[in-house]
């Protein structure tokens, strides 16, 4: 069965620190990959996505993620975090080609707290 | 901009009541989804629909049903609410082939069952 693992449940950083949030998935075929963010009191929104091509994708607000196929990973990075990055981050995976079992699988989320 | 709206932000219901959660999207998306979000568990798919009157079970469909009579509207029904259904419920929609594209989420309905 498909699954997505986010090993860090809660990450606490100071402003200007660098960020890397881990995401690993288990799926045998080609996948689409996503990072979503949920700011306090707001709805989930797409941060970035990977469908094909350059494995290093850039998203909004200075975030980027790298798809490493051999490691089944899609880690989220930001060189210098800000207090406004405080949020919960969800990694998600879906198969590239539709089948009767197609759906997006979400990880359990990583809560990021930034100390001002 | 895609807009997904949910009928209530907060709802309090009693055990045994029938509960309706409504979701409307304005971008003509084929796919619509209902999730529940619980701390430490992430998002779990309850049901999804890829066309009017079509539905498929997600990972946790027990105790829930859905209805999609119009393309823009997807309803989640708790036939007899129980306290373990206290949760945040999120609706989402997406284009295209089933669930392979990015989803757009509504603001959520925080349901408390007492």
In short:
The complex is a heterodimer of chains A (116) and B (114). Chain A is mostly beta strands. Chain A has no helices and 12 strands.
Keywords, separated by commas or semicolons:
heterodimer, A: 116 residues, mainly beta, 12 strands, globular, B: mainly beta, 7-stranded mixed beta sheet, 4-stranded antiparallel beta sheet
Provide structural commentary:
- The complex is a heterodimer of chains A (116) and B (114).
- Chain A is built from no helices and 12 strands.
- With 116 residues, chain A is mainly beta.
- In chain A, the strands form 3 sheets. In chain A, strands 2, 5, 6, 10, 11 and 12 form a 6-stranded mixed β-sheet that branches. In chain A, strands 3-9-8-7 form a 4-stranded antiparallel β-sheet, with no helix packed on it.
- In chain A, strand 8 (64-68) and strand 9 form a beta hairpin.
- The N and C termini of chain A lie far apart (41 Å).
- The relative contact order of chain A is 0.33.
- The model of chain A has no long low-confidence stretch (mean pLDDT 91).
- Chain B is mainly β and 114 residues long.
- In chain B, 0% of the residues lie in helices and 53% in strands.
- Chain B contains no helices and 11 strands.
- In chain B, strands 2, 4, 5, 6, 9, 10 and 11 form a 7-stranded mixed β-sheet that branches.
- In chain B, a hairpin with a 3-residue loop joins strand 4 and strand 5.
- The radius of gyration of chain B is 13 Å and the shape is globular.
- Chain B starts with a strand and ends with a strand.
- The model of chain B has no long low-confidence stretch (mean pLDDT 92).
- The A-B interface holds A 6, 9, 32, 34, 36, 42-46, 49, 90, 94-98, 102-104, 106-109 and B 4, 35, 40-45, 48, 58, 90, 92, 97-108.
